[in-house]
Amino acid sequence: MDRATFFTHFELLSDQPDAVAKMRELVLQLAVRGKVVSQNPKDESAETLMVKVRAAKERLTKELRIKNFAADVPINDEDRNRAIPQGWAWVKLADICIKLGAGSTPLGGKQIYERSGVKFLRSQNVYNDGLRLDDVAFIPPAVHQDMSGTWVQPGDILLNITGASIGRSAIVPDDFDEANVSQHVAIVRLAEKELRQFLHLVVIAPDFQQRIMDVQVGVSREGLSMTRLKEFVVAIPPLAEQHRIVAKVDELMALCDELATRQQARQRPTPTVRAASPAGLPRAANLCCRLGSRARPFPPPARHL
Q1: What pLDDT, in 10s, does the model give residues 159-197?
Q2: Domain co-membership, 124 together with 221
């Protein structure tokens, strides 16, 4: 998608009050369907990439002594036959992850929070554009050690799985130090970290978000189980194309930011014009006085019967 095409799409949505938000959704939707950049037949295919991912997953599970989990059922024919660009591959989320699990609640809950210590990430810290740590909670290092199964690592994708913010997701920065995570947030840890930028786009794109809405569990349907999440099917492009897609999305989202700024400027109230005064524009009577006998005051408006 070039700049001209972008603005053409925006014109179709510009009359809607949430036009910029809709445009961001459209960018994500087109991106994860392979519609924003061209495919290159010279790229190493996603099938070849998946061979490497599976090998990395097997190696890491042995090195880290963790359970090598997998999807419960293979990809069905309906999903496998859905059209995707040349060189892409359908995979289940479980196939590319070495960890897919919810966080936990420390014993004592909020009562053990401290003013400093190890960051304890909650759903209010997780946003699609990154982690927001202004109101982050802290837990004692000893509690963090006891909760070793929910340690957060750089490169993890965090996903809110309950409540009003369900579906919101953030990538943990590469320079992040340490943290733990609450039961309202899931850790998605990939076998190959290079997939994280593209997969994050997949997670926050409309198709994936709708899937989350469709499979919620619980009485009020406000929770996403890990059993369901690991069965999610996603389309993966070649790694080189992933990089091009992420770069293009960054470019198009910058244009969305520009559009949002323009809209805000147009919506600002126009300064009101103050009544004319002798210190400003002269009133008609004053003007006539200065013009002397050469001018007469404006006649009063005619009265209509």
Answers
A1: 999 999 999 999 999 999 999 999 999 999 999 999 999
A2: yes
